[in-house]
Amino acid sequence: MELIYEKITDKSFDEAVKNITESLKDKKFGVLWQLNFKDKMIEHGIDFPNNFMVLEVCNPQKANEVLTKHIEMGYFLPCKMVVYEKDGTVRIGTARPEILMGMAGYDDLGDVASEVEEILIEAIDNAI
Predict the structure, then answer these.
(1) Could you give all domains of the chain from N- to C-terminal order, each with its CATH number?
(2) How far apart are CA 65 and CA 62, in angstroms?
C-alpha cells in the first residue's frame, strides 16, 4: 500500500486549492492553516519554480477521538493535504492516515484511521 494518495486534476492550481477546501468542508473537515511554499521561498529570495500548497486539515470530533485515546498521536495531527504543480500538471494528495497511525502501533486507532482516510480520499476524488 502506498503511503501517499494522489490524483492529477485538469484544474488550475488556484481552482484545485479552492475545490479541495470546499470538498473537505462538505466532509466536515476544516482547513486550519495553509502555506504556499513558492510564496514563502520568494520571501527568502529563493526562486522556487512550482506552486506547492500545504493545507493542514482537521475534523475536531475525529481529532478528539484519536487524542483522547493516545495524546502522542498529536505528532501526526492535523492531517496534511497538498496541492502542487509538477511537469505541467496539478496534483492533489495526502499521506494516508491508516498507514501513519498504523506505524504508531496502536491497534485501537484502526477504525478511526480507516474512516478518516476514506473521507480524505473521497474529498480528493470529489475535488478533481
Answers:
(1) 4-127 (3.30.310.70)
(2) 5
